[in-house]
Amino acid sequence: MANIHSQAGxxxxxxxxxxxxxxxxxxxxxxxxxxxxxxxxxxxxxxxxEARADGSCQSPEHRLYGLLSAEPDAHSRYNALLARIAxxxxxxxxxxxxxxxxxxxxxxxKLGRVAQERTIVYLTGxxxxxxxxxxxxxxxxxxxFDPDSDALLxxxxxxxEELRINVELAxxxxxxxELPGWRDRSPVVFEAGNVQVRHFDPYSQALSKIERGFSQxxxxxxxxxxxxxxxxxxxxxLYEQIEPDLYRYPAIDPAAFRGxxxxxxxxxxx
Length: 270
Fold this sequence. Notes:
By secondary structure, this protein is of the alpha/beta class. The chain has two domains: 5-93, no CATH class; 98-270, no CATH class. It has helices spanning 13-24, 30-37, 39-44, 60-68, 74-93, 101-114, 126-132, 150-163, 202-212, 215-226, 232-242, 254-266; strands spanning 119-124, 140-146, 166-169, 188-192, 195-199. A five-stranded mixed beta sheet has the order 3-2-1-5-4. β4 and β5 form a beta hairpin. The longest helix is centred in the N-terminal third of the chain and has 20 residues, at 74-93. It starts with 12 loop residues before the first helix and ends with a helix.
């Protein structure tokens, strides 16, 4: 069997590990059903899985949604779980060395030499955590170019292979409405040639992580709040400003999202 523990840094590895254990023990949990859903892909990665023999005529997808149906944000959580297991499979197929501060700098230096005009590169998620110091490394680097740059987009696939870095074009507005004033709250990290590297607005990052709700995301939000990157009252205010626009994101349940924001804030307020 593939060594899941050796891939503990991959996104979703904790779900796969628990799912394999629950499946072997006959427990029908979220994690076990996710592993069933992804079984063909996991087996192709060398993960040994026993076929379930409970006689159920329902697909694991239907059973997972049924298990989540009592939650107010069932649809959103269902999609987030499927995205998480897919992220694990993609990362496991292309396992690369963890990305630390030096490798992030190397990526920025390469982009800075290619950029033909002044371009801002916004970093999100694990890259922010690494540069702010609460994680030593990350698996994926989520970036956004402003303005869009054909030159950088064309060279990005080759840079990913040269530097052996998983790079995704992703930022918080892909998942939640844009927060007003986000550009002004995106701090500069460093300059590299024609590229200025910034953290994407920490408030936008925090709210998108809270909405997704995985343990690593919530731990990141806690670090942001404890470190002063995000102020609790302001986080709640900004959530309230985007709540009227959540209808554009039908997978998000506004009441559930509001409750998750409140819980995240309460966890760090004495």
